[in-house]
From TrEMBL:
Domain Hcy-binding: residue ranges: 5-298
Designated gene of the protein: mmuM
Record's keyword annotation contains Plastid: no
A matching Pfam family: S-methyl_trans
Residues involved in Zn(2+) binding: C221, C283, C284
Organism: Streptomyces triculaminicus
EC number(s) given by UniProt: 2.1.1.10
GO biological process: methionine biosynthetic process; methylation; S-methylmethionine cycle
Enzyme category, top tier: transferase
Protein's name in the database: Homocysteine S-methyltransferase
Organism placement in taxonomy: Bacteria, Bacillati, Actinomycetota, Actinomycetes, Kitasatosporales
Entry keywords, A to Z: Metal-binding, Methyltransferase, Transferase, Zinc
Domain of life: Bacteria
Any GO MF annotation of the entry: S-adenosylmethionine-homocysteine S-methyltransferase activity
Amino acid sequence: MSAPTVPLATALARGPLVLDGGLSNQLAAQGCDLSDELWSARLLADAPEQIEAAHAAYVRAGAQVLITGSYQATFEGFARRGLGREETAALLRRSVELARGAAALGEREVWVAASVGPYGAMLADGSEYRGRYGLSVAELERFHRPRVEALVAARPDVLALETVPDVDEARALLAAVRGCGVPVWLSYSVAGGRTRAGQPLAEAFALAADDDQVIAMGVNCCEPADADHAVRLAARVGGKPVVVYPNSGETYAPTRTWQGPPGFAPSRAASWRTDGARLIGGCCRVGPDLIGKLAEVVEKQQRP
């Protein structure tokens, strides 16, 4: 299948689309070593074929939107490994090309979302789940802009401003993408009805409600139960299609292991869609099997 024939916003107006799941867990399942500060982004340089294979697994499962492996890919992070700016820009572009290559394997249209992760992901210390880095909005904008420009050069269908922990970083990201010519979605990481930094979600969603470049808003990398309330609130406050892709529900322990029972149920997709979700998928620890089941739920709900 060639590149999509309609913009993502047009497709969302027609009905919900299925997002992929967690890239890192699929890479781990393929035998990749992710014990590195660059996490899955390291494979953009060292094993790009593994990233394309992971994307392809989600296409086969029924994903209609693929999120690139650029979440933790930054100029600063790769500079610590001795890569120059041109080399890093090429890797960022490669992240889009790999997803596009996997998308072409599908039998239907598949859109590519270029991941723009938060500043804290570059620090690799968990601070993307706290926010409030001690930087101004202007400083955060300067950090994000070069990465946005590199990703835009590869012509993704949308930029995924994802796992955003607070309103300040959301404001910086929206400034960094303004006028870039590519639509965006804005997705917060939340806990207990607030951003990770503790701001009310209504305030967070209102920030982008009148921004025409934002074609969807919502949440990701959160507990499935937290997503329920967030979807309803995002639809009410934003008046836009809602994006939702929570984690499995397991807890990430200091030992770098996942603990507890999973709480991600593909059946939740039905209520999320009823409440306004149009981009529905999974994040950490949600693999192709679960995305396949979620796709079945979405498809069944669309039948007359």
